[in-house]
Write a structure and sequence with these properties.
Helix content is 35%, strand content 15%. The protein has 448 residues and is an alpha/beta fold. Helix 2 links the parallel strand 1 and strand 2. Helix 2 packs parallel to helix 3. The longest helix has 18 residues. The two termini are 34 Å apart. Bound molecules: iron/sulfur cluster (2 copies). The site of one iron/sulfur cluster (SF4) has 12 residues, from helix 13. One iron/sulfur cluster binds next to helix 11, helix 12 and helix 14.
């Protein structure tokens, strides 16, 4: 409870110091895993419709506490600064609190991302005691919208309660949201929820066709939807500066549109911008069976090895697949990205998102700059699925890009049953609910 009593001023000073520590010299070539996202179990208490890892049951041969302690020692040796625990639901790992403690004692900032469904006041206090500094709760819409995305009735209420429990336990709270055609209407309402809940940071990302979201291409934004969505985020970001809410885009939201500086900066009137994919440069992902990737959201083909067999340092220093982003050049890009004026800096945007569409990096359809340029030429791009996903964690479907006249009528079949804003939200939610129920029945799981 001592930690729960940190004063507002102490927390503000800590936050500022942390923000400064997190700034990395991304021009350096001395790469190290500063920012680690560690999935400690794939067990989950929800069955989210857009989950990239298709979490529900633990992986075979998940790490034990003994494995975890060896990993903590290696992260310390590699000078990791911040470790984000994820799942599934990280708190479902039997040694969850011990892992937090070990990371904290090794000097790393311990953070967690959660759906919050199973967090009560007692668990929040245990997490705080163990050394958890920040916790980001995933909230994807208001009430029914969130419950449908999470395929669990009551999930929204639980997530909001979790924010309160965590805040009361002295843990800094943030919210992260995944946006797509199904929930984009709730963007502004979520902003007000964050303010009401005294959330300091809100991360906004786009749903990519990864894992379960790859089975629902109708749900995804089309590239031209960014023409509307990104400026809406930018307006909220500007407002948030004066109302105490910092909105940060996930790495797959952008890139290089007129709002780039505003979106990527942590302070008003700063001009940060996307610096290219940092996977395997300063970012590291670890899966719950010990598999290692340059970024937690990357597909299985990017696994460089397993920590139970091969030390992290060996993989970090020697694996070309782990370090693929270190050597990438404009020659590795394709499609529109290859000829883009920002290509040398951007290098095709977020790698896992590009791979989720085309099975390779270097061509990024979710790009605001690109959608604007297309529109200037009277064109738009549309992605359509041509091959389905296998049904495994972090798998992907395959899509192709159709470039068409900007005002061409949208084909109802290709756009899908929610048909943008033409179909009412209620109708979209009903369709979505039927799809979820079918899938959960097939999995012998009932929608509770
Ligand atoms: S078109 Fe590609 S390279 Fe250019 S800004 Fe967009 S994502 Fe980056
Ligand atoms: S793949 Fe995307 S999210 Fe991962 S490090 Fe690269 S840009 Fe960031």
């Amino acid at each position: 409870m001592i930690k729960a009593k940190r004063s507002q001023t102490d927390r503000a000073i800590e936050r500022q110091k942390e923000a400064e520590n997190r700034r990395l010299n991304t021009f350096s070539t001395e790469y190290f895993p500063a920012y680690v996202v560690w999935e400690i179990t794939l067990a989950c208490d929800q069955h989210c419709t857009h989950c990239g890892s298709r979490a529900i049951d633990p992986r075979q041969f998940e790490i034990t506490l003994a494995d975890a302690l060896l990993i903590v020692a290696q992260l310390k040796e590699m000078k990791a600064r911040e470790v984000v625990l994820i799942g599934g639901e990280a708190y479902l790992h039997p040694d969850f609190l011990e892992i937090i403690k070990a990371l904290d004692q090794a000097g790393m900032t311990v953070v967690m991302t959660t759906g919050g469904y199973g967090i009560d006041q007692r668990l929040a206090e245990q997490m705080s005691e163990a050394g958890l500094k920040r916790c980001s709760v995933s909230i994807d819409g208001i009430d029914n919208t969130h419950d449908l995305m999470r395929a669990k009735k009551g999930s929204f209420q639980q997530a909001v309660k979790a924010l309160g429990y965590l805040r009361h336990a002295g843990i800094d709270i943030s919210v992260n949201s995944n946006f797509n055609r199904f929930n984009e209407r709730d963007l502004e309402a979520l902003y007000f929820l964050c303010l009401e809940q005294k959330v300091k940071t809100w991360q906004i990302q786009l749903t990519s066709p990864l894992g379960r979201a790859a089975d629902r291409s109708d749900m995804l934004f089309q590239p031209f939807d960014l023409l509307d969505f990104v400026p809406r985020v930018a307006r909220l970001k500007e407002r948030g500066f004066s109302e105490g809410l910092l909105i940060m885009p996930g790495n797959n939201l952008g890139f290089f549109g007129p709002e780039e500086g505003l979106l990527r900066s942590q302070r008003p009137h700063h001009y940060d911008h996307f610096q290219g994919c940092q996977a395997g440069k300063y970012v590291l992902g670890i899966e719950s069976d010990g598999a290692v990737k340059g970024c937690p959201s990357l597909q299985p083909v990017y696994i460089s090895g397993n920590l139970k067999q091969s030390p992290l340092k060996t993989q970090w220093d020697q694996s070309p697949i782990l370090g693929f982003a270190r050597t990438r050049t404009v020659d590795d890009l394709s499609g529109y990205c290859k000829k883009c004026v920002f290509a040398e800096v951007c290098l095709g945007g977020c790698s896992f998102t590009a791979h989720a569409f085309f099975g390779k990096t270097g061509n990024q359809p979710y790009c605001h700059y690109r959608a604007i340029q297309m529109k200037k030429e009277g064109l738009r791009e549309r992605v359509i699925p041509i091959q389905s996903a296998d049904g495994l964690p972090f798998d992907h479907a395959l899509f192709e890009i159709i470039t068409e006249d900007f005002s061409a009528p949208l084909d109802r079949d290709e756009v899908g049953p929610w048909l943008l804003k033409i179909v009412s939200l209620e109708q979209r939610q009903k369709t979505h609910l039927i799809q979820i129920e079918d899938e959960t029945k097939a999995d012998n799981k009932s929608l509770k």
